[in-house]
Amino acid sequence: MDPDDGQIGPGAALYDRIGLGYDGTRRADPGLADDLDRHLGPAAGAILDLACGTGNYTIALAARGRPMIGLDRSPQMLAQARPKEARPWVLADAARLPFPEATFAAAVCIHAIHHFPDLGAAFAEVGRVLADGARLVIFTGFPEQVRSY
Q1: Contact, 69 vs 97, CB < 8 A?
Q2: Residue 143, C-beta contacts closer than 8 angstroms, at least 6 positions apart
Q3: What b/e string do you get for 43-82 counting C-beta neighbours within 10 Å, with b at 16 or more?
Q4: Ordered alpha helix ranges (H), 1-149
Q5: Helical ranges in 42-132 per DSSP H
Q6: DSSP, res 31
Q7: Could you say which DSSP state residue 115 is in?
Q8: Smallest Cα–Cα separation from 108: which of 141, 70, 142?
Q9: Which residues contact 2 (CB under 8 A, 6 or more apart)?
Q10: Over the chain, what is the mean pLDDT?
């Protein structure tokens, strides 16, 4: 808990402020969702969408038959995700995942790692909750690209 913003981890307050209008300008790109699905390979079992936001890609991958669990540190983002589809939506920080070791067959993280204050801690946690041989699929951009969105 970050005492400055009262939310889960630093930065959650930013996404709580923009969460209400977030989906007005953002949707899952079908081509990217196809690519993510392809990169996940034969993963059989639960897949974690790390920093899922309002769940656009969580839902897009679930529509492709993937058993998705969305996780985000912003209560507002998850409040926008929940009405879209009934599935597990978990409020937590990437650096402190509330799951046992080897829980997931794979994980994805789409346009979010630039918000992680400690990439090492987040990746260590993801590694802890992934089963042996599981894939972590990351889609991101350079800071210059992200600023222009």
Answers
A1: no
A2: 114
A3: beebbbbbbbbbbbbbbbbbeeebebbbbbbbebbbebbe
A4: 12-18, 30-40, 56-62, 75-81, 119-129, 143-147
A5: 56-62, 75-81, 119-129
A6: H
A7: G
A8: 70
A9: 8, 9, 10, 12
A10: 86
Per-residue pLDDT reduced to its tens digit, 47-99: 999 999 999 999 999 999 999 999 999 999 999 999 999 999 999 999 999 99
Reference 107, options 86, 126, 88, 79; nearest CA is: 126
Q: Are 51 and 72 in contact (CB under 8 A)?
A: yes
d(CA 48, CA 106): 7
Cα→Cα distances 135→4, 32, 59, 144, Å: 34, 17, 19, 27
Tokens matching residue 101: 């070791």
Q: How far apart are CA 91 and CA 112, in angstroms?
A: 15
State which H helix or E strand residue 96 sits in: none
pTM: 0.82
Which residue in this structure is represented by tokens 């894939």? 135
